[in-house]
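Justification of computing resources. Each target in the renewal requires a structure prediction run like the one illustrated here; the chain below, 231 residues long, is used simply to show the kind of job we budget for.
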Amino acid sequence: MTKKITIAIDGFSSTGKSTIAKQLANSLGYVYVDTGAMYRAVTLYAMQNNLIAKDYFKVEELIAALPTIKLHFKFSAEVGFAEIFLNGLNVEKDIRNIEVSSFVSKVAEISEVRSKLVEQQQEMGKDKGIVMDGRDIGTVVFPEAELKIFMNATADTRAQRRYDELKAKGDQVTYEAVLKNVQERDYIDTHREDSPLIVAEDAIEMDNSSMTKDEQFNFVSTLVNDITKTL
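Resulting structure tokens:
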């Protein structure tokens, strides 16, 4: 039996990290964890409890509430991946709108939030056989991961992908608003003091601006095969 490894996929927003991670996990029989969903769920909690809005962010109150925020993933045969639950409620669809996207990077800046979620993520991956995507997986969560991938694409390309995705779900958004959100998240993610988005020294970079989904999957699958052959 092939030895199981840890696969860390990092990168900017809307680069398709989750899509690739889900495909890999399914093909390998690994556990898939979307860490972005965890930060989005905490953001949704903050929004629902009037802790964050366009004109305020009650950081200390959110930090105080962290012990009451319970997150877990549950596999859904209907969608083919594990959906996230916030305090017992499935919030997978609720966390994917543009409003949550506009606040999530601010919430993810908070060191106490990151500490709580990183601890949970490390526990999830203690037995390997996991594919995890996010912003600091290869640098903070699993610095010893056997395979680290850093995904990127131009801001325009990522905004168009995100815009098309939101429109397909019926959201009333403009391309300009989505592009602005992508650019703002890029800035916050790369400039925060705690665990900024950077490329791990041993990560393999992949710019998928002009790659199809099949090309991306074949690329990362080859990387996995090359590594597992040497174990």
